[in-house]
Design goal:
4 strands, Dimeric_a/b-barrel, Jasmonate_Hydroxylase-like, ABM_dom, ABM domain-containing protein, alpha+beta
Length: 111
């Protein structure tokens, strides 16, 4: 889980919202998640992400991308595609992906 929020960004940009239900700590998940974080950070146009998971297994990850080309680069990455296939077969009970264009953004942080 992330401990710091992505601050307000200059719009427009895009989000990939991934919500899922899976058991806590399935075998191999943490290693794969760590590798996916490494890969996505190398994509030009990737702006950051936030993630949270409840003890009951509901997870939400929001990734931010400057444009659709950078989001597509992530979607089409071969390691990411392999992880998605493995996740459907072994980890997730269900998931949804929502892609959105952000037109307004702001943030607050207590000093």
């Amino acid at each position: 889980m992330t401990q710091k929020l992505v601050a307000g960004l200059e719009p427009p940009y895009y989000t990939a919202l991934f919500t899922s239900i899976r058991p806590d700590a399935p075998e191999g998940y943490a290693e794969t998640a760590s590798r996916m974080q490494e890969i996505v950070k190398e994509i030009p146009g990737f702006l950051g992400y936030e993630a949270a998971r409840t003890p009951g297994g509901i997870g939400i990850t929001v990734a931010y991308f400057r444009d659709l080309e950078s989001l597509d680069a992530w979607r089409l990455d071969t390691e990411h595609q392999a992880a998605k296939t493995y996740g459907r077969e072994h980890w997730y009970d269900s998931y949804s992906v929502h892609i959105g264009k952000v037109e307004r953004s702001y943030s607050f942080e207590r000093e």
